[in-house]
Amino acid sequence: MKLVRGAWKLLVGIKDALVLVAMLLFFALLFAALNSRPSPTTIKDGALVLDFNGPIVEQPEEIAPTAFLSGQEVGQQYRLRDVVRAIDDAKSDARVKAIVVDLDRFGGAYPAVLGEVADALTRARTAGKPVLAYATGYTDGGYRLAAAASEIWMDPMGGTLFAGPGGNQLYYKGLIDKLGVNTHVYRVGKFKAAVEPYTRAEQSPESREANAALYGTLFDQWKEAIARSRPKAQVANWLTAPDRVVQAANGDIAQANLASGLVDKLGDRVAFGRRVAQLAGTDTKKPAGFFNTIKYDNWLAAHPVAKTGEIGVVTIAGEIVDGKADPGTAGGDTIAKYIYDGLAENKLKALVVRVDSPGGSVLASEKIRLAILEAKRRGLPIVVSMGGLAASGGYWVSTPADVIFAEPGTITGSIGIFGIIPTFENALAKIGVTTDGVKTTALSGQPDVLGGTNAVTDAVLQSAIENGYRQFLMRVSQARKLPVERVNEIAQGRVWVGGTARQLGLVDRFGTLSDAVAEAAKRAKIDPATAKIAYLEKKPGWAAELAKQIAAREEDDDAAAPADAFARIAWERRQTLARALGDVQKLVSGGGVQVRCIECAAMGPVAAGGGDIKLLDLVLAKIGL
After folding, report:
1. Does the pLDDT value for residue 4 go beyond 80?
2. End-to-end CA distance of the chain
């Protein structure tokens, strides 16, 4: 009998092993099929299609292999440098007969990012390459890109309205008081507004003043850019009296857009496809309205970037957090390791630090700064390239730079610091629960989230925050060669736009990542024309790459922005609520001293992160919605 049981176990083990091998083989073959890299010679004539079914970001979040199995919303994100490279490579390639920019489900981007992509499209158009844009209706960010096109198309059943930057945000003070939660805030900087939603019921006068100036400058830049790219567009009336313009057209927004020169043609996708087919040729294997296409992913794969080089580029994207983190979030340990490994494994001659972050943990920010300083200690020129956002901790990590590049629309500054601790003694008292115990010092059991903090603890924590702020000022003072008193005047947690930051001495020059790489090459005595880049970042594993390839082939209608105007409004409100919940969770659970600009997120991509959406779904499920 034992012999039979042993034989049976052996057979089951063999069966399980064969199933495992078969599954691994299946996924390996699937990965190979999805990830097959076309060579430049396999690209055939057609229109390069930039179907922005999501936001343009500095560093896309890594898609977890389990995301599809769990039913999580999986949205597309497009890496800025890849988008710009794709357009620049296409402008002089004869096989690319036109560039199509599909903005129906565009998820937005920071103003500086929009400007860089629009400039690339303008270069292609100026080089003689037809650039055609299409959408059911354009958002402010979408129109910033469309204005660079040689032809702007729109669905006759759609319409374009401009909202401008700004809007309301949630304030939780009333709810917190009703729940009996005490929010202990320790901060320096009268403009450090990250904590205001938890301490006030409305915006402070200082925050209103700073935001009005910031939004006003960004809006002026947007209007100037539209006027340069599309002089015939009569935008002014759509900004000052959109109701009268629409009413004069009997509610037909599309016709009013056409009459105002905002768009060139009205037509559905079939009509638009026929127009593109005139330039790129008709796809005879498909119905009418289809044209020969060059897929974005195939185009990138056929034009790979070098994997090694003398100029190291490390990207600090997303929230700066302690420990390790996947792409899209800047883990202090992770980024520092990339730099140290790059110094050890690559023969780097210079380091470019690409920053696109609202900041976060001060400890993680300092760990990254020290790693950059190690590269500087070894004699490498350090050039910082600020993307759409380099605020608070994003500026902290920029201080070791020999030179800082930014865009006029870069959001930066926010030189301030804070910490926040919620306590629940009043909430517990409402249900008859109290706390008591023996304490040997004033700091025993402190900070006590159940019994509340005491005056000694509050004094210690506030003093530590003030010391952290002084360190921040000193780092900026030494780096920018400005008196500490002057840095304090322009700091205070205030957010600045890149143009103003340059005037204040926080930024040296305007320029893109390419400009920063060229500057680094010059400082390292390398010809910028022949300089090669080594990107110091995580190489995606096969599982993550497989998930990415699947996501690129499957549209998640819940994750992508809807094309219909009313549906898009509802979708945007959902994203806003998800981001707000995510901010609350980060503040109350993040711990530690923070150098973070929370309000900056409102100026970037519309789409919330996958984690924030998951949190929103969980909350809605709990309350039965």
Report:
1. no
2. 57
Q: Which helix (H) or strand (E) holds 131?
A: strand 131-135
Q: Is 392 annotated as catalytic?
A: yes
Residue 458 CA to residue 467 CA, distance in Å, equals: 14
CB atoms within 10 A of CB 236: 11
Q: Which residues pair with 259 in a beta bridge?
A: none
Residue-wise pLDDT for 287-313, tens only, equals 766 899 999 999 999 998 877 889 999
- Rounded to two decimals, the pTM is 0.88
Query: What is the C-alpha separation between 10 and 108, in angstroms, rounded?
Result: 57
What gap in Å lies between CA 407 and CA 510, rounded to an integer? 5
- Residue 481 and residue 505: Cα distance in Å, rounded? 9
SS3 403: strand
Whether the CB-CB separation of 298 and 36 falls below 8 Å is answered with no
**Tokens at residue 523, please?**
């400082």
Considering 192, 548, 586, 614, which one is annotated as catalytic?
A: 192
| Residue 318, phi-psi category: left (phi > 0), alpha (psi -120 to 50), beta (remainder) | left
Closest CA to 58 of 296, 330, 298: 330
One-character DSSP codes across 365-381: HHHHHHHHHHHHHTT--
Question: Strands 182-188 and 417-423, how do they pair?
Answer: antiparallel
For every residue of 453-503, DSSP letters joined together read --HHHHHHHHHHHHHHHHHHHHHHHHHHT--HHHHHHH-TT-EEEHHHHHH
Residues near 514 by beta carbon (within 8 Å), at least 6 away in sequence: none
Token readout for 565 is 């105007």
Separation of CA 601 from chain center: 8
Per-residue pLDDT at 17 exceeds 70? no
Query: Could you read off the pLDDT of 119-150 as tens digits, one per residue?
Result: 999 999 999 999 999 999 999 999 999 999 99
CB-count exposure of residue 536 (10 Å: 0-12, 13-18, 19+): buried
Range 337-358 average pLDDT: 94
3-class SS at 2? helix
Residue that is written with structure tokens 């840095």 in the block = 487
Active-site residue identified among 365, 392, 414, 477: 392
Pairing state between β 151-154 and 411-413: unpaired
Tell me if 71 sits within 8 A of 100, measured CB to CB: no
DSSP string, 132-164: EEEESS--HHHHHHHTTSSEEEE-TT-------
Residue 330 CB-half CA count within 13 A: 36
Say if CB 87 and CB 124 are below 8 A apart: yes
Q: pLDDT at position 369, please?
A: 98
Q: Is the pLDDT of residue 8 over 80?
A: no
Q: Which of 572, 467, 580 is nearest to 141 (CA)?
A: 572
Predicted confidence (pLDDT) per residue in 597-607, tens digit: 877 777 878 66
Question: Which position has the token pair 């890594």?
Answer: 62
For the residues 217-234, what does the mean pLDDT come to? 96
CA distance 551 to 68: 9
Catalytic-residue membership of 91: no
